[in-house]
Amino acid sequence: MTGITFFIVDKMSAYVVGGSTPETAANFTRGELEAIYKGNHHSRDTSGAWRITPKPEVLPIDTAMKKCDDAISEFINQKYQVAKLPLEKPSSTYRGSEAIKHTVTAGVGIKYFFTNSKDNDPAAYTTDLKKIGAMWNEGQRRFKAFINGRFLAIDLDRKPGKIDGLEMFYRLFPREILPAELQYLPQSFPCYVQTPTGGFHLYFRYTGPEFKMRELGQGIEIKEWQITCPGSRRENGEYVLHGELNDAPPLYGLIIDAIVEAKQKKEREKAEHSKTLNKKATANHSMQITQSQITLEDLAHEAVEKYAGHHDRQVSFAGKACRCKYSGADALAYVKSRPDIFGKDTDTENTILSVYRDNRAA
Q: What separation, in Å, do the N-terminal and C-terminal C-alpha atoms of the chain show?
């Protein structure tokens, strides 16, 4: 695939995935390429400096634009029309208790979402349908599923006003390099959960070593240990299971490679950050923070460093704030003041105060 053709496919795919019509996608794509050839298209390089985007190919502008129009026409006539064909969706759909029962039958243990237990402890979860039925009859509707050792889930977040995880997925993985199951998500995928906010949990079979990575990209989380159980319900909707867990495909090599590459990049950045901190510590020996001096802001930064999801950050932050003797009211006020870190979920207050109750510090 030549430079201009690759540019057109990449740009058109991104605009189409984002919801643009083929005509709008074509206009934006053509405008970008024309700006590049006229020297009016800028982007940031790795140093943070603005630079002119390089031309995909060394061609006269008229030739380049003719090639662009041909590539756009081919994309619309082939790629876009294929994407719009009615794709066969998973034949089965499970909701509520049926989805929970299906999950348990597949050998996945579950527990009540706000149980005071470690999420990575298999003993905290159960596949006993009688116990689960008792929790259901008590009115509990939100559960966590322990998927480690059986599945790995990719969480594509699609909250309004936030980065679109599905669009970012196709920026990371151009459609033409993907297996058929991933080319037209979610319809082409055999086993996924639709979340209340319109996102998707894609289930893959995986029994390999832990990656210890929480985020593959903006809006794309990696769930290795536990995930909200299919069939759960929140104030804003339910988690609906489409397809059979036993039909989940294996975790593809190209996704494994991307996770490993992202992990290595994060480790390099962490090493550079540590070097910077060490230099600052050497320059100012008096800056030693004791536990009594730890601020809520410090605890928030720790949560950001460790977790990508808003709920996980809330739980981690609240637990540490409690142990540092901050009141539940102070912790909740801080969380609500930082939606950029902790989000604006409707159950934020319940999450924070539940952690305090679990630590007997309400």
A: 61
